[in-house]
């Protein structure tokens, strides 16, 4: 049984990665229903929380049916991160997660996210202060290092454990790689082989099929996996991986009716939570994956990502259901 503090997550948990502009409540809802064991919010700016910025505060919205859930924060000032952690705890998540992995320039080049990998001592000091500030378990998501010359992930994991984190998720790329090239999970074995390390280690990067999940589970000694981009528009991946790991067999691909039903549910919640304009706008990134592989679909995809009203999008989905009624997705 994998545990974070007193939180029991099963024998080999699958985690939904925190993804900016993706891991919102509507998306988390469909992932939870399709097998995600632990989910994280989008990352939240510590400075935004302290200043009570509306966008940051809205990201604190969590719901009972999502539990267990972690709220993730980022920032480059220790005092601000400590204050933000206290605000997060008031929202009553199961876990507080620290983002030490975001590679985008506007975050990393200001010393936050993956930027702090250039100052490990500050990373450890910041983490220690956050752990002291809250009673809930603190976890960390990070990368291997800033670049190939600064990979100190074995040391990082041990030092963060020593100041109190209760799990670590490692994206097996450097900041320099961004999301390119192949993730190098061999470093995760090195982390797990450290005899002083006893906290759970979750692997992240390139888990996009049940077969690859099974291969990496057998090859690398991690306690579970965190799935990010492969879940966008395809929340079924969690249950598909679980089924394959337990049986060695692949589940049938979700039918067109199932895809449309989940897409509509996702859309409904998005509009309800964000309002029609923003809810429709932020759904657009998901449509391609919901209907990936369908032939001659470009016209409908274009219509969906350019429609501005809820009624228009639903009408297009209904049309897709009629036109492709006999289409079968391959596994």
From TrEMBL:
Its EC number is 1.3.1.-. SUPFAM superfamilies: FMN-linked oxidoreductases. Pfam families: Dus. InterPro entries: Aldolase_TIM, DUS-like_FMN-bd, DUS_fam, DusB-like, tRNA-dHydroUridine_Synthase_C, tRNA_hU_synthase_CS. One of its GO terms (molecular function) is tRNA dihydrouridine synthase activity. It catalyses: a 5,6-dihydrouridine in tRNA + NAD(+) = a uridine in tRNA + NADH + H(+); a 5,6-dihydrouridine in tRNA + NADP(+) = a uridine in tRNA + NADPH + H(+). Residues 15-319 form the DUS-like FMN-binding domain. Its cofactor is FMN. It comes from the Bacteria. CDD domains: DUS_like_FMN. Transmembrane segments: none annotated. Keywords: Flavoprotein, FMN, NADP, Nucleotide-binding, Oxidoreductase, RNA-binding, tRNA processing, tRNA-binding. FMN binds at residues 72, 141, 171, 228-229. The active site is at 102 (proton donor). Catalyzes the synthesis of 5,6-dihydrouridine (D), a modified base found in the D-loop of most tRNAs, via the reduction of the C5-C6 double bond in target uridines. Belongs to the dus family. This is tRNA-dihydrouridine synthase. It comes from Algoriphagus zhangzhouensis.
């Amino acid at each position: 049984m994998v545990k974070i503090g007193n939180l029991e997550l099963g024998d080999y948990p699958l985690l939904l990665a925190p993804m900016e502009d993706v891991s919102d409540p509507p998306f988390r809802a469909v992932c939870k229903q399709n097998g995600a064991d632990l989910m994280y919010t989008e990352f939240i700016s510590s400075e935004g929380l302290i200043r009570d910025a509306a966008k940051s505060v809205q990201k604190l919205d969590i719901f009972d049916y999502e539990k267990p859930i972690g709220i993730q924060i980022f920032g480059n000032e220790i005092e601000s991160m400590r204050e933000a952690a206290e605000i997060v705890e008031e929202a009553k998540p199961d876990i507080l997660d620290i983002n030490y992995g975001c590679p985008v320039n506007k975050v990393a080049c200001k010393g936050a996210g993956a930027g702090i990998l250039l100052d490990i001592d500050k990373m450890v000091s910041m983490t220690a202060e956050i752990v002291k500030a809250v009673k809930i378990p603190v976890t960390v998501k990070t990368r291997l290092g800033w670049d190939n010359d600064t990979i100190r992930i074995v040391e990082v994991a041990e030092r963060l454990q020593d100041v109190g984190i209760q799990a670590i998720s490692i994206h097996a790329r450097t900041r320099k790689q961004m999301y390119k090239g192949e993730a190098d999970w061999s470093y995760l074995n090195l982390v797990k082989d450290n005899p002083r390390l006893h906290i759970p280690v979750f692997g992240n990067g390139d888990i996009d099929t049940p077969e690859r999940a099974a291969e990496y589970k057998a090859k690398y000694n991690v306690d579970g996996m965190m799935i990010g981009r492969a879940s966008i528009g395809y929340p079924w991946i969690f249950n598909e991986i679980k089924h394959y790991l337990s049986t060695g067999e692949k589940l049938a691909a979700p039918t067109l009716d199932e895809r449309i039903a989940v897409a509509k549910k996702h859309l409904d919640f998005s509009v309800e939570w964000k309002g029609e304009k923003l809810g429709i706008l932020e759904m657009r990134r998901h449509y391609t994956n919901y209907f990936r592989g369908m032939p001659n679909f470009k016209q409908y995809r274009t219509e969906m990502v350019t429609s501005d009203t809820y009624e228009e999008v639903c009408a297009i989905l209904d049309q897709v259901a009629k036109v492709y009624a006999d289409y079968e997705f391959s596994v």
